[in-house]
Amino acid sequence: MLYGLLLLLSLSGSPGDSSWWLRQDVRLLRLLNGIEHPVLQACLSAANASSYPVFVGAPVGIWVTGALRGEPALRRAGFRMATAEGVVAGVVLVLKELIGRPRPYKTIPDLQLRSRDRLASSTDAMPSGHAALAFSLATAGVLETRTWTAAFPLYAWAASVALARPYMGLHYPSDVLFGAMLGTGLTWGVYRVWEALSPAPSGRHAAHQFP
């Protein structure tokens, strides 16, 4: 709906208006979708394929590890990550319905569709859920570890997942940018709320308190 209104308003075509930005969005989409280098193709395909397993496996694996080892701090970490992902996913689905932007492969005939994602075929494009969840997980990982040494690999993976979506023909670059910002911001907010509502731990688990 909102995307349709944006298209109706973008009539003049000058560099400062919305139609100019839409053209740049499509131009960058074509550039990413047209990647032919075999190494880049392999990396983006691998990142895209890893998304669902990591989205589910990371928080569940951390929670299960904490349960098996008898470490409440790890269980809390897994639960926090899952909570953040749940909030992000819920907001993304609501925004997809409100914005109503069609998937690019449905409106650009010569675009290469490199994925048969069934969920993608039934939902709209903006914001990108994959980008939002990937950056949510990366942000949660940094907040949990409280070390910037974890930031590079986590955000590198998240960026790869995000870039893979235009490459697959499933999202415009602006979809993934919006999703990345949304996932990062909402996750930071979830952790701040958790910190405010949680009592300070004591004893041997105090070192694991979220900052």
Helix content: over 70%
Biggest sheet details: none
Q: What is the alpha-carbon Rg in Å?
A: 19 Å
Structural class computed from helices and strand pairing = mainly alpha
What overall form do the CA principal axes indicate? globular
Number of domains: 1
Distance between the termini: 41 Å
* Annotation, overall tally of beta strands: 0
What share of the residues does DSSP label as strand, in percent?
under 5%
Enumerate how many helices there are, as a single number.
9
* Residue runs with pLDDT of under 50 for 5 or more positions: 1-17, 202-211
Mean pLDDT: 81
Q: What does this entry look like structurally?
A:
The chain has 211 residues and is mainly alpha-helical. The protein has one domain. The protein is 73% helix and 0% strand. It contains nine helices and no strands. The protein has helices spanning 2-9, 18-33, 38-69, 72-99, 104-107, 118-122, 129-145, 151-168, 173-197. Helix 3 crosses helix 7 (129-145), helix 4 packs across helix 9 and helix 7 packs parallel to helix 9. The longest helix is centred in the first third of the chain and has 32 residues, at 38-69. The radius of gyration is 19 Å and the shape is globular. The N and C termini lie far apart (41 Å).
Could you name the key traits of this structure?
single chain, 211 residues, mainly alpha, 9 helices, globular, disordered N terminus, disordered C terminus
